[in-house]
Every structure is written in structure tokens, then in C-alpha cells.
Amino acid sequence: MTLHQNEIRVDETVVRALLREQRPELADLPVSPAGAGTDNRMYRLGDELLVRLPRTPGNAEAVRKEQAWLPRLAPQLPCRIPELVYCGTPGDAFPLAWSVYRWIDGEVVGPGRVTDWPAFGADLAETVRRLHAVPLMGATREGELSWYRGGDLQACDGWVSRCFDERRAIEGLDLDIAQLHHLWQGALALPEPSGGQVWLHGDLKPTNLLVQHGRLHAVIDFGGLSVGFPDAEHAAVWDLPAAARRAYWEALDLDEATWLRARAWAIAVGVSGVSYYWRTYPEFVDECLSRLRAILEEKG
């Protein structure tokens, strides 16, 4: 499935050729698809490894960022994160940076896989708290560490409003776009965050959270890693049941303004995701619609 105009073709043959070029001792291990997101494709390599390749040249910048920072962040977090085994470089088989990681066993968060949603919300809050407390180690909100999430809501109003306009044009879309736009505009009037900038994962949606025995086990996909204000980090909790969301809020003791800004970020990401992937990635569109409906239900 191709999602972007400048996407680079990848399959098992490409992965094996790439391994022969750079890690020949791994090239004869079994290779099989292990999922794909909006920015990367993954292949399981043997029983213990994972090959991760960016879809586009722009996504390769995030790969290099992960290679530089994940080994420094991992010791300071309470759950597992991707463990880098090899930093791949552009080659004849594939023209971008790529990575080999240690395989992490676990299941993507979802119904029937979490045994205690309030406990899960509290565990996620603790992971976020610990990440935000990690010293910046000289990192600043510049270049690859300056993703739009973690910045100012006002700066995003132009493209977010265009996405709202595009969604209004879809016939039969069962979604109160006017109410969502009202909530977004209300957040624009809030004061800017007053705290300092911190490390941000940037995309803590359920597909980036793995559980074992019903509890949070690992956080994956740090392609959105950045430095910025923490409000957008909390946006993905609208992908979780209300009980997890409440426990998360209480565990971090978030004030109302932070919560409302986080909700606005959730709206922005959801509306833009529906807009961009409407015809190419229906599963991701469904995720975005579920998030937006959860916001409307909570508001109601």
C-alpha cells in the first residue's frame, strides 16, 4: 500500500539485498512483514530482530534522530523502548538510512488486551512523566527536534482550518465538524504553556504502545521525538477508554488549560489525518474518526 507520492518501494527482496550489502551475517535469517505505519515499514528478521525502513526521504530524518537519541533515553525510562542493534546507511538496495532493532514481544493496546484500564492510564502517565523529566542533554527545539507538535497551537491554525474545510465537503461523514471546530477555536484563545520545554515522544497512540500480561510493556516508534511544550503529548489519551484517560489526567495532575490544549492537539491530528489519508489508508482514518468521536462524546 502506497501512502505518499515520493514513497520508495520496499519488499522482502529489498530487505535481504540490503542486509547482504551491510550485514551479511544476518542476510540468511527469515524475513517477513511485521507491519507498517504512515512513516515506516517493518520486517521481522529471525526471532530476535526487526528491520525498520522509512517510506520517504523525509521520514529518513526521523530514523537518524532515533539512532542518535534512543540509546541515551532508554536507561531513564520505566518501560522498554526500541533497542538499536545496527544503524543502516544508504546503499544500492535502498537509498535512505534504516535501522535494525531488537524485537520486542507484546501486543498492540486494544480491547481484550488490557486487564485494568485505570492502571494502564497511570502506567502511561508515569512513562510520560519520566520522559519529560529526562535532561535535554544539550538538545534544543531546532531542526529535526522541532516537530510541530510541541509548539504553538496558533501557528497551526491555517492548515488545521483548511482540513476542517475539506472534511465539511465529504458527504455522509457522521461527525459534528462544527462542534470540533468550535473546540479548536476555543483552545486558540487559551494562554500559551508556561512551563519549560521537555522531551516528547510525539505520537503515543495505541499502535505505538505494547502490552504484556495486560499491562504497559513498551513504547515504540519515536519518529516524532522532539523537544517542546508537553501539551500535545497528552493528546493521544482520547484514543483510550475514558477510565484510562481519567487515571492519566489524575496521575499527572494536569490543569484544565493544559487538558484543553491537549484536546485541541487531538482534534488537529485527527482532522488532518482524516484529510490526508481519506483515500489511501482507511484503517488510519478509522483511528482518527474514533478519536474525534471520543472527544465529542466526552464534551457531550
Automatic annotation (TrEMBL):
<dbReference type="InterPro" id="IPR011009">
    <property type="entry name" value="Kinase-like_dom_sf"/>
</dbReference>
<protein>
    <submittedName>
        <fullName>Aminoglycoside phosphotransferase family protein</fullName>
    </submittedName>
</protein>
<feature type="domain" description="Aminoglycoside phosphotransferase">
    <location>
        <begin position="31"/>
        <end position="265"/>
    </location>
</feature>
<dbReference type="InterPro" id="IPR051678">
    <property type="entry name" value="AGP_Transferase"/>
</dbReference>
<keyword id="KW-0808">Transferase</keyword>
<dbReference type="GO" id="GO:0016740">
    <property type="term" value="F:transferase activity"/>
</dbReference>
<dbReference type="Pfam" id="PF01636">
    <property type="entry name" value="APH"/>
</dbReference>
<dbReference type="InterPro" id="IPR002575">
    <property type="entry name" value="Aminoglycoside_PTrfase"/>
</dbReference>
